[in-house]
Amino acid sequence: MSPAALRWMGRGLALLAVVVVTIALGRGLGLRWDPLGWEARREAAREQAIAHAQSDAQARGLEVQGERRQAERRLDAQTRVRAAADAVGRFQAETKGQDDAPLDINRRDRLRDLDRELCGLAPELEGCAPAP
Questions:
Q1: DSSP H or E run through 6
Q2: CA 58, CA 50: separation in Å to the nearest integer?
Q3: DSSP 8-state symbol, 108
Q4: Which one, of 94, 90, 88, lies nearest residue 107 by Cα?
Q5: What's the rounded Cα separation, in Å, for the pair 111 and 103?
Q6: Which residue, 53, 98, 102, 116, has most beta carbons within 10 Å?
Q7: How far apart are the C-alpha atoms of 5 and 10, rounded to whole Å?
Q8: How far apart are CA 19 and CA 8, in angstroms?
Q9: pLDDT value for 102
Q10: Rounded Cα gap, residues 124 and 46, in angstroms
């Protein structure tokens, strides 16, 4: 190769080195060049992912809260059913073997007490008098 060609090649490489160093220094100082807007697209995608994650987390929180309420209602219903079954069982044990002929005053009182107890467990049932 001729010395003139080598000189131009050296100048080209020197210019390329200056451009690379300038770009590297510019990036180090926080300068950005994004002619196609890729960084803005990435930022928009990140923001969208964050918004989706936040709404998803909020939905999961509402699901957990709903499951807790449902479990509390289920436990309350089970407790009321057991209490009613216990009351009826006690009444049946007390009245076992008694005939269904005219009710004596004691049996009538026991029936009234059972009715009050059942209405206390579930006041929304039909026939239950409102609590005083």
A1: helix 3-28
A2: 12
A3: H
A4: 94
A5: 10
A6: 116
A7: 9
A8: 16
A9: 64
A10: 53
Helix-, strand-, coil-residue percentages of the chain, each rounded to 5: 75, 0, 25
- Specify the residue for token string 């039909």: 126
Residue with tokens 């160093």: 21
Given a contact cutoff of 8 angstroms between Cβ atoms, the answer to whether 98 and 107 are in contact is yes
> Encoding tokens for residue 130?
């409102």
**In contact, 119 and 128? CB cutoff 8 Å:** yes
DSSP secondary structure string for all residues of 43-74: HHHHHHHHHHHHHHHHHHHHHHHHHHHHHHHH
91/94 Cα distance (integer angstroms):
5
| 3-state SS, residue 121 | helix
Give the pTM: 0.49
Could you read off the pLDDT of 66-120 as tens digits, one per residue?
Answer: 999 999 999 999 998 898 888 888 877 777 766 666 667 777 787 788 888 888 8
Select the more confidently predicted residue: 21 or 126.
21
Rounded Cα–Cα distance for residues 23 and 38 (Å): 18
